[in-house]
Structure to design on (464 residues):
């Protein structure tokens, strides 16, 4: 079965974005239909647009930085379409371009009145059940694909079928039923639901879904029972070549996700053996040199050009946190009296981290120049304000690193390694460091240390 997807956006500034979405929907073997079929401003054309929305299964809204042509009602045609789709009860998937994204002059609204209307429209769209942000057209296409696949599963619509497939004979019906439990798509869905019930965090579930979706697309019409070790090897070669994955660590992660998936299939007695077991693991790259030297730390700090950049770098150096943990820090998590931050760990366990005097200083400077009332520590610089996403934080780090002459890749993990290196050099006990980093391995011989606001200064007796 195929579904019809109606996409809507402003015209000239988002041509490439719409083309990419159309290409994505076609690659999923569904029917895209967009505004290119119509000319704005004609009543008859608007009647046709309404009819195409009426017969569509899903509605994809793409918002950039322009409000677009305005109707007689005083709202843009894009917003008018959105309102009609909303009234019609159509499932709506909204994709809003990051408000601090780098754009060309013609891609931004110059009229202040229209800018205000655009901001109001963005706020309206953000209330959609499914709303996400994007920066590049490639990122948009990936998010549209994932969101639509998810919507197809949890909110299936009437859809479309070929007329010569409407009268299935009994044999083909039984064949379809027999193959249902062996389809890759259904088993990926069941695997993810099972892992969610087990308490796996959403960021990990999203990673599993993305990698398994790529595997599903590569495997095309194959059934689970048809997958052998050679197919897995060919897929991993495809991932390296097609997606230009150069990191052995990343390839190891991809293999690991496949291994978990096929182990689950064996446990569920869907298949007899795991074909990934016969595929060699990828040798992990040496990460001992990932930490920055002190002279490199100084160069990164000096490369910051505004308060937010410097505060972000100092928080990374002071806490050694994961990217997702930095994103979730709220102002209420900071204890200014004790100079600590409560970290909401990716493993659902909270921990306390001590702020350096330098981090405290630059954090306060950053908060002094903020004009928003958001509760999150790091937020976007332009209205409508929202928390700075994982990708936004990563982008800031990349920009700062690009201003330096350091001949190594600098990422959030680099600062985590730097934090660990500094702590060990200052005499921090290994089990205390593991607790600061959020590690808690029940099988480890090391004693886990619970760090609190009351004992952190005693545990970290050195000057930090």
């Amino acid at each position: 079965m195929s579904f019809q997807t109606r996409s809507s956006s402003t015209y000239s500034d988002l041509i490439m974005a719409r083309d990419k979405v159309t290409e994505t929907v076609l690659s999923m073997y569904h029917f895209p239909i967009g505004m290119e079929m119509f000319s704005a401003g004609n009543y008859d054309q608007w009647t046709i647009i309404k009819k195409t929305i009426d017969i569509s299964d899903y509605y994809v809204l793409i918002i950039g930085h322009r409000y677009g042509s305005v109707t007689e009602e005083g709202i843009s045609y894009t917003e008018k379409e959105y309102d009609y789709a909303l009234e019609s009860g159509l499932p709506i998937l909204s994709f809003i371009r990051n408000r601090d994204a780098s754009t060309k002059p013609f891609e931004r609204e110059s009229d202040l009145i229209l800018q205000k209307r655009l901001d109001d429209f963005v706020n309206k769209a953000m209330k959609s059940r499914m709303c996400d942000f994007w920066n590049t057209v490639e990122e948009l296409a990936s998010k549209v694909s994932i969101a639509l696949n998810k919507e197809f599963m949890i909110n299936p619509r009437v859809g479309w079928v070929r007329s010569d497939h409407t009268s299935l004979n009994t044999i083909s019906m039984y064949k379809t039923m027999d193959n249902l439990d062996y389809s890759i798509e259904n088993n990926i869905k069941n695997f993810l639901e099972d892992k969610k019930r087990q308490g796996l965090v959403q960021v990990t579930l999203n990673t599993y879904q993305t990698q398994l979706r790529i595997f599903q697309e590569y495997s095309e019409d194959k059934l689970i029972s048809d997958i052998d070790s050679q197919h897995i090897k060919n897929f991993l070669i495809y991932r390296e070549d097609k997606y230009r994955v150069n990191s052995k660590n990343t390839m190891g992660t991809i293999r690991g996700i496949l291994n978990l998936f096929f182990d689950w299939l064996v446990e569920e007695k869907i298949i007899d053996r795991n074909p990934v077991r016969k595929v060699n693991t990828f040798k992990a790259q040496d990460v001992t040199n990932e930490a920055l030297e002190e002279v490199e730390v100084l160069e990164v700090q000096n490369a910051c050009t505004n308060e937010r950049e410097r505060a972000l770098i100092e928080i990374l150096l002071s806490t050694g946190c994961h990217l997702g943990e930095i994103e979730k820090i709220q102002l209420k998590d900071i204890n200014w009296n004790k100079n600590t931050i409560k970290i909401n760990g990716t493993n659902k366990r909270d921990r306390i981290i001590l702020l350096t005097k330098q981090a405290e200083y630059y954090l306060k400077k950053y908060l002094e120049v903020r004009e928003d009332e958001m509760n999150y520590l790091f937020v976007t610089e332009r209205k409508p304000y929202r928390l700075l996403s994982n990708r936004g934080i990563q982008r800031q780090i990349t920009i700062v690193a690009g201003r330096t002459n350091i001949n190594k890749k600098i990422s959030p993990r680099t600062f985590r390694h730097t934090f660990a290196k500094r702590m060990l050099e200052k005499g921090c006990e290994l089990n205390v460091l593991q607790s600061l980093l959020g590690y808690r391995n029940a099988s480890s011989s090391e004693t886990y240390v619970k760090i609190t606001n009351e004992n952190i200064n005693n545990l970290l007796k050195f000057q930090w």
Notes: Residues 140 and 459 are 46 Å apart (CA to CA).
